[in-house]
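Researcher: Structure prediction, please.
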Amino acid sequence: MNPLANPSRTEPGLEQVYLVERDAGLLCRILGLYAARGIDVLHVDYAYAAQHVMKLQVSVAGTLAETEEAVRVLVDKASTFIGVLAASDQPAVVKRAA
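Model: Predicted structure follows.
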C-alpha cells in the first residue's frame, strides 16, 4: 500500500458510460480519443452487459469547466462509431490518491 495515498481526497471529474459491441479494437479507438485530446483518464472499467455487448466506464480528471465541453464532443464523436450502441456522460466525484 502506498503510504502517501489519501483515500479521503477527492477530485471533481466526469464519467462516461458506453454500451458497445464486444470488440477490443473499438475499445482502443474510444480510449484513443481521450489520448488524442489530452484528457487525463483516472479509471477505466469494462464488463460484459450481454453476450455480445460490453459496458465501458471511463472516469476522467479535471474540473468540470475545463473538461465538460471536450468530453461532450468526445462522447458525441464516439457515439458515431460503428458498434457503439449508446454513450452518455455525467458529473462524478472520483477518489484520487495523493
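Model: Confidence is low (pLDDT under 50) at residues 1-9, 94-98.
Researcher: Thanks, that helps.
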